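Minutes, project check-in
Item: structure for the 512-residue chain
Input as provided by the requester:
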Amino acid sequence: DRFTVARDLADEIRWLLAQHTPTPGLRPTVASMPAGATPMSPLTPNTAQLAARAADATPTGPTRIVPKGLRSFDASDASFFLELLPGPFDREGLPEGLRFWKTRIEDTDPEKTFKVGLVYGPSGCGKSSLMKAGLLPRLSPKILPIYLEATPDDTETRLLRAVRKAIPDAEGGSLKEILSVIRRRKLVPSGGKLLLVLDQFEQWLFAEQDYAKAPLTDALLQCDGGAIQAIVMVRDDFWLSVSRFLRELDIPILERENSALVDLFDMEHAAKVLGLFGKAYGKLPESTKNWNQDQNEFVRQAIHGLSQERKVISVRIAVLADMMKSREWTTAALREVGGIEGVGVTFLEEMFGSRHAPIQHRQHEEAVRGLLASLLPSIGTDIKGSMQSAASLQKAAGYENKPREFQDLMDILDKNLRLITPVDDSKGADGGATRSYQLAHDYMVPSLRDWLTQKQRETKKGRAEVKLAERAAVWSNQRENRHLPSLTEWFSIRTLTDSKKWTSPQRQMMAR
């Protein structure tokens, strides 16, 4: 953290002194002198005085984090949200990632800003929170932001309605016409610019068949960076689709120019965030110096279990903290729930199986089990598995004739819980979308498998279904007779399971 040259240190000291009223009786300071001047030491405040001023400027007391489980943070959480972000921080307390977007958005010089920007990152990395709680509340009053979560079918209509509400003087029937009027007449009330933020943009990309002919594409062509600007936010596995979309706008993706990655936490910062959540729930002392050895070990084991390649997805920290909020944060408590994988099983049970689960989730329990089971990879591997079409998932859920219930279920699993994700570039040969999905993360596979089989093994029918899946997985890899079910197992599977729901490998094995 050292300054590379003394001039940078002097600039920082001048800035610090300029922010505060001089202490009575203190002689003229460096802040009031020309840049480059080197006053004699009696004229400058000493280190103790600088430290006292800095301490006076720093809020006292611990930062109060308010955990929100799987829900994203918003403007009401802006006061503490920066504490959850990794550094480095600038002189005004903003991390470099937020500083980049704030500077590029507030600038009106076309050479120093962008027309349409891109925020991307893995599912669950905190893109929505970063925008709603980190960036938008800290923008200049001259920026008029409109934040919208994209949907497959009515994104343009809802955006048009939001723009009309924000700028009533704008005339026009379509979104393109209204944005054109706003751009040409500079109708933003503050005299600044209109910022359109489209979150979960992969929902629109996934459903749109032809980006070139889409009304939203025509509308965003009105973005000039000076009067109107837009940001689209997507999961990183939709890179191909968003690249095609921005190509239609004739906008190249330039890292740190008009795009930036929201990366995963490193293990050190993840431990800090988990500690803040523990304090918020009253499970850890406010000062880390007062944590006992077992509490430190709990955090270490938890972060180690949550990490993959020394990186941690922020939503996993939120899930762990939420599941452990009613338990002691000790290694013994972590062992009682079966470690990190056990926390995952507990989360799934509390979301769908428990009597405390939300009623809108609980009514889909059987359908959830069927759908998620169809997305699991074969036994013996913990990689996400193959994608499945929406039609096959609807059948697996038992909702063939219930399209509304199926859509509600997909919204819960995709938008709310982030358990599944649409698959990028699922365009058919005719250009139509085939709508395919897969599990959102590899880390979910062991927990999902345990949760699904745990319930199944409670009944004869369930045990037969588990045996069928296990035998078929082994036999598919090595088609030898010794891997076939025994006669007793075959009879049990044949009589207790629904052959209409067998997969192709299962049918082949049973026929053999």
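Outcome recorded: The first strand starts at residue 116 and ends at 121.
No further action items on this chain.
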